[in-house]
Design a protein that fits this description.
Blueprint (H helix, E strand, L loop, with lengths): L1 H11 L3 E2 L17 E2 L1 H14 L7 H15 L3 H13 L7 H13 L3 H13 L7 H13 L3 H10 L7 H16 L4 H13 L3 H16 L3 H13 L7 H13 L3 H12 L14 H10 L3 H13 L8 H15 L2
Antiparallel strand pairs: 1-2
Helix pairs in contact: 1-2, 3-4, 4-5, 5-6, 6-7, 6-8, 7-8, 8-9, 9-10, 10-11, 11-12, 12-13, 13-14, 14-15, 15-16, 16-17
């Protein structure tokens, strides 16, 4: 459905970093800058305006709705999905999301593959209903079995992973690469991760790294972090603290919590040389940013910082206990 595409596009949009208000202000490393969400807020407003636009009750649309309704009531599964979309979009009828979902479900239960694919997405992402991953997987796999691209990608992205059977892993990589070739940037890093975790030799690790690099060059935060880590540990790329620091720095600027932690770790250990994008921030500031976003490595480091009085901080059992509690909360499934 159109709204699903709009919401996915919005979810993937990247905020823009705030720029210094004046060149006279002390320079701050961009990794510590707040997001300027004005551009994202404008995009949200435009999307919401489309979603909430008045129903189109023109005679032509009303006639099309009545035609679809009669066919749907007669058991035509394709018409049932069309009716669901018209109810969702307010075409020829006032919007009624619940009725739209009911007709989509009826179409899916009738065996119509596109409806199964859309229903799988709706359950998986919680669009118009609570998230239910079991039902999301069930309907996505039903649609995938009939060859629907959207259903295959949903299964590959959400329900097949490195712990799946070799057949499912191959299926997932096929569809991830299919969408990567269409320019879907998050697929690049996902492919790299899956290949890296299952690599059996350095040639396969280099292939995985090449996908990480494609994601990083598109400024995908996870891709930037994974390129940095690959250089740090010499996996799929030559070990290089200097390269690792540079990529972690970019990942931290892109607000990747693992990137912030990696950047802090190398700065704290004095590895990689000088920073490239601005004056080196204090590692503690970066650990705090990452920890507030739930990065467990950063939280673990802060527990030790306040237990032992490190990184210029006084020992504080209270603050150590607070971070230990946050670590526990992050580790609870």
């Amino acid at each position: 459905m159109k709204t699903i595409v709009l919401l996915l596009t919005l979810a993937l949009a990247q905020p823009v970093l705030a720029q210094p208000a004046s060149s006279k202000e002390p320079r701050q490393h961009p990794a510590l800058a707040d997001f300027d969400t004005k551009g994202l807020d404008d995009m949200r407003a435009k999307v919401q305006a489309v979603v909430n636009r008045p129903a189109d009750l023109s005679p032509e649309k009303v006639a099309a709705f009545d035609k679809a309704r009669l066919a749907a009531q007669g058991g035509d599964a394709a018409a049932q999905l069309e009716l669901a979309q018209m109810l969702h979009e307010g075409e020829g009828t006032p919007r009624d999301l619940d009725a739209g979902l009911a007709w989509m479900r009826k179409s899916a239960e009738g065996g119509y593959a596109p409806a199964q694919a859309f229903l799988g997405v709706a359950y998986t992402l919680g669009q118009g209903m609570p998230v239910d991953r079991k039902l999301g997987e069930y309907w996505s796999r039903k649609g995938a079995a009939q060859g629907v691209e959207l259903a295959n990608f949903t299964v590959a992205q959400h329900f097949e992973n490195i712990h799946s059977s070799p057949e499912e892993q191959a299926h997932a990589l096929h569809w991830l690469k299919f969408y990567a070739e269409k320019g879907f940037i998050p697929a690049y890093n996902e492919i790299g991760y899956r290949l890296m975790m299952t690599a059996k030799d350095e040639a396969q690790r280099r292939e995985a790294f090449s996908w990480y690099m494609q994601a990083a060059k598109a400024l995908d935060p996870s891709g930037l972090n994974n390129v940095a880590y690959a250089y740090e540990v010499g996996r799929g790329a030559p070990q290089s603290d200097e390269a690792a620091l540079g990529w972690y720095e970019l990942a931290a600027i892109a607000k990747s919590p693992p990137g912030q932690t990696g950047f802090a770790r190398l700065l704290e250990q004095g590895r990689g040389g000088p920073t490239r994008q601005g004056p080196a921030p204090k590692p503690l500031e970066l650990y705090l940013l990452a920890a507030k976003q739930g990065d467990t490595e950063a939280i673990e480091r802060l527990v030790k910082v306040f237990e032992n009085g490190e990184l210029g901080q006084q020992a504080s059992p209270i603050r150590a206990a607070q971070w230990r509690e946050k670590l526990h909360m992050e580790q609870v499934p």
